[in-house]
Structures are given as C-alpha cells and as structure tokens.
Amino acid sequence: MAPSAQAHHRSHSLLLLQKLLNLRDTASPLTLILDNLEQSAGPLVREFINRAKIGRSKVIFISFATVKKPHDADVFIKARGKSLAALAAEIASHCPTTATGTPPQKYLLLLDALNPLAPHSPLLPAFFSSIITSPLVSLVATYHTDVPVPSPPPYAPHPLTLLTHLATTVFRVSSLAHAVAIRRAHSRSVQEPEWGLREGREGVLVGLRGDTTSSGGVVVEMEMRRRSGRAVAERFILAPAAGGGKGSGAGLSLLSDHPLFAPPPPAGGDGDHEEDELVDSTFSLGLTEKQRRDREGVVLPYFDAQTEVGGGEGGRILYEMGREDDFDDEEDEI
Questions:
Q1: Residue 153 predicted with pLDDT over 50
Q2: Does residue 327 sit within a domain?
Q3: Residue 116, C-beta contacts closer than 8 angstroms, at least 6 positions apart
Q4: Most buried residue among 7, 68, 170, 333 by CB atoms closer than 10 A?
Q5: What residues form the membrane-spanning segments (predicted)?
Q6: What is the mean pLDDT of the segment spanning 57-63?
Q7: Is residue 199 part of a domain?
Q8: What Å distances lie between residue 252 and 23, 30, 88, 231, 298, CA to CA?
C-alpha cells in the first residue's frame, strides 16, 4: 500500500471509530460489544460514557449484573426480574419520541449484559424496536461470549448469531497482552497460548495481571455494517486515559501502528540488512570472498566434453576408469 493510501486508510478508520464513540449522525443505533473472562468490556463502555457526557447526552444504564449506579449515569434501571414489556415501557419513559432542545439531546442506552435475555431471543427484535424509538437514541449492549446459554428451540438461531445479525456495529474486545503473546508465537512458528476456559485447567480462573508491555491497553476489533450492506472491519488499540482524569479521553490508534504488530520491512537493501536477517540463524547462509572466488574457478566436466571432443559429434561423457572399476567389453561404447 502506498504511503498516501496508507495514511488515508488510517485517518478514515480512526474517524469512523470516533464517529461511533461520539454517537454522531446515528452512525449505529444498535452496538454490540462482545467480551469474555480474559477481557471485560468495561474500558470501552467507560469510553462511551465519557464521550456521552462531553457531548451532553443523557446516559441511561440498564442493569442485569451491576449492583451500584455508575457515577456518570443519569438514570439507573434495574432490569432483573422484569418482563420484556415492563422493561421496555420503563426505558421508553425516559426517552421521548420527539426531539427537544436546540440542538436536540441524544440518549445513550447502556445494557450491561444481554445473556439474561438469551432465552427470549425470538422477542429481541421487537424489544429493541420498542426502546430505540428515535434517531437520537443509541443502544450499546454487552454480551459475554463465554457464559453458557440455554439451547435454542429447534430451527431457531443461536442468540449470539441473532444479535450479531441485528447489530449495526459489533465490537470484540481482547487483551493487548494476549494479542502480543499470540503475535510472538506466530513469529516463532509455535502454538498459540490459551487463556481462561480454553486452557482446560481445573481450579480457579486467574484474571488479567499487570503487564508493562501492553500498558493496560485493550484491542478493539470493529465490524460496522453500512446501509449498503458493506462491512467495514478494522482493529484498534484503546489505551487508558493519561492520569485517569475525567474527560481526558483515552488514546486510540490502529493495531498495525503498534511496534510489535508493524509489517516487516520490504526485502532488499544493502549488505548490512542481509546480515541482520541472518543474525537469528544457527549457521551462516552466506559465502565469504574466498569461497566466491573458489566457486568461480571451478571448471565443470561437461565444459571439456563440449570443447575438446564434442565438436560436431553431439558431445560425449568423459570418464576415467579407476582401479576398482570392472570394465565389461560387451557394453556398448557411450
């Protein structure tokens, strides 16, 4: 990719992510965040809340698993134990269907866990339609991919399949430290490491630990579906805000811009570059100057056959018999 095209792609991808996080121009009415035990969706959800407060949007937090009201949430709704109809009516009461104010106020609905709604997956399209009642309302919902869900009815899609189909944007979060470890394994052609449930170990699951390499960053894999049906996919790094201050904003960058994920330099160049490529080898693949001269001075046997006895006769094979050879007179002369 040419430098200008690469810079354009980088700018376009970052601007698109900023547009989604800032809830601009109804870019994504339904955003789905997929997380697991190895990496929580918390950093990305906090980024949504921080940007919503900066943009003076109203934050409505719908809780299935959260006990306390988040600090920056304007409305806190306890959803556990309520029917879908009652929950939808309570949410809709905080989201007017008509635009009010200049400019009109936006509404961010945050649903902390969709897994309790998995048994009612056939009713989810109608539920989402009843709470996203205006272009000013955006729903960001989290789904835990490693939490088991009941088996769907016969011929019914899996709840995760249905949710990814309904969502206009899907974010998959993972640990940067784990992504770096997988990258190193690929560079050494060894098996990828596994974490969490995939390790297959018995006992207590150990969560993420501090890693100076990742500096607490989160890998965010974005898949946005445009109205034309074309999907835009890209991977980013969401770094924590400097100092953790409110409103400071987290750092965003492409995963390919990370030093450990940068593509290898193009082949070619001077001799020093070739020597650098051979540093990791256990033996030398190059030739010394003396070995090059000796190779150029070697005269191959078929040269003599062509110049001395091969003129006009098609060439012959010259062979000098040794002491251990047994010549058979009945063999035809070559």
A1: yes
A2: no
A3: 64, 79, 80
A4: 170
A5: none
A6: 95
A7: yes
A8: 16, 22, 34, 21, 60
